[in-house]
Amino acid sequence: MSEKSKDVAKQSGVYSDHEYDAGLRVIHEDAVANPGIEPHRVRMTDKSEKHEKNAVRQVAALFTISMLGSALALWAYFAFPISEDLTTVRVNTLFLGIGITLGLLGIGIGAVHWAKTLMPDNEVSEERHLTRGSDEKRAAAVEIINLANQESGFSRRKLIRRTLYGALAFFPLPGVILFADLAGKPGANPGDKLRHTAWGPGRRLTLDPYGFDSEGIKPADITVGSVFHIIPKGLNPDHEDYLEQKAKAAVLLVRVDPADLVESEEKKGWSYQGIVAYSKICTHVGCPVALYEQHTHHLLCPCHQSTFDLLNGCKVIFGPASRALPQLPISVDKDGYLVAQSDFLEPVGPSFWDRSVKQ
Q1: Which residue in 169, 174, 218, 301 could disulfide with 73, CB within 3.0 to 4.6 Å?
Q2: CA–CA distance, 2 with 8 (Å, rounded to integer)
Q3: What is the pLDDT of residues 145-181, one digit of tens each?
Q4: What is the Cα–Cα distance from 320 to 222, expressed in whole angstroms?
Q5: Hey, which residues does 30 pair with through a beta bridge?
Q6: From CA 338, how far away is CA 205, in angstroms rounded?
């Protein structure tokens, strides 16, 4: 017990120094003895060469499954291109997921099986040293690593080593293809796809998913505290890039008391009678911001809890997002329908892309 704790207890009049010291001695005397290390249990692969060879083949088979799974994911990505038909999305996701799962599980289970059946499993107990060891101890550590290599058979068991190299080489490829495809054409900046959306001057706001058939939405249709999911009028579901255009242009439309809005000088004309429009794509990793807290006027991303202040330019007040949601400037046309004044004046979506806006 620390001297400070003893002083506090003595001042309280509960225990004396002698009583504290006696109590500490009792604690040490009653402490549980170190049980030591359990006796080593010999595995079948340690006793039988047949079992050892079977284990080697099993590990190699798991690494081979990993390679085949990664190849399946690559094949599925190109064999089942995604279109507007949701069936293609399901099939692509199914086979891509199965392939990536096999690629990862094959390596993981294979490594665990290798460690459990073939690598040395003798338990040891060492004192922990917090400082740098001497040169002699460091040399001894290198010798131990070399000994472990010999005992594990990594250099000796060529079948395991080669299939492991193959699995490690294959399993990152599906991810590389998926992320590389986001960049579009070779040499293109991935952020370029997010700089422009389907919004433009005079484009009417319509309720999702009726952008192709609806005439639009009027301010009188929006009550204070209500929130609408908005897309540009005229998006055609039959077009090849419909889903991409809709995803980039998705907007949340909310009406609040105009007196509560805190608007900067350059954005004072971007709202209409308390109606504001903000991108629905979270600036963290692109999840849909779909939760609106009416009493606090906060927009919440359900993926990682990034929270945006709707009344103050949708600035980030909590969570991992690093910038505010882009605002869509809106007004009304001659027929009284809400329209966009322009496209977003900054890229929508995640902030991990290059954000240097071209002028």
Answers
A1: 174
A2: 10
A3: 887 777 777 777 788 888 888 888 888 888 777 776 6
A4: 31
A5: none
A6: 6
| pLDDT for 49 beyond 50 | yes
First to last CA, the chain: 68
Side-chain-side CA neighbours of residue 179 (13 Å): 7
d(CA 28, CA 31): 5
Tokens of 356: 């240097």
The model's pLDDT over 310-339, given as tens digits with 9 standing for 90+, comes to 999 999 999 999 899 999 999 999 999 999
From residue 242, give the alpha-carbon distance in Å to each of 161, 200, 225, 245, 281: 47, 16, 30, 5, 17
Beta-carbon contacts of 355 under 8 Å, excluding residues fewer than 6 positions away, are: 191, 346, 347
> Encoding tokens for residue 188?
């293109």
Fold of 192-340: Rieske Iron-sulfur Protein (2.102.10)
Whole-number Å distance between alpha carbons of 62 and 270: 58
Q: What is the DSSP letter of 327?
A: B
Residues 251-289: tens digit of each pLDDT: 999 999 998 988 888 888 899 999 999 999 999 988 999
- Dist CA 355 CA 359 (whole Å): 12
Helix, strand, or coil here: 115? helix
Query: What whole-number distance in Å separates Cα of residue 175 and Cα of residue 212?
Result: 35
Asked if residue 21 has pLDDT above 70, the reply is no
Q: How confident is the model at residue 8 (pLDDT cuts 50, 70, 90)?
A: very low
Label residue 131 exposed, middle or buried (CB < 10 Å: 0-12, 13-18, 19+).
exposed
- CA separation for the pair 271, 329 (Å, rounded): 6
Which two tokens mark 52?
């050892």
Non-local CB neighbours of 144 within 8 Å, separated by 6+ positions: none
Sequence spans of domains, the chain: 1-33, 44-122+136-181, 192-340
Backbone angles phi, psi at 351, to 5 degrees: -95, 5
Cα 253 to Cα 147: distance, rounded to the nearest angstrom: 66
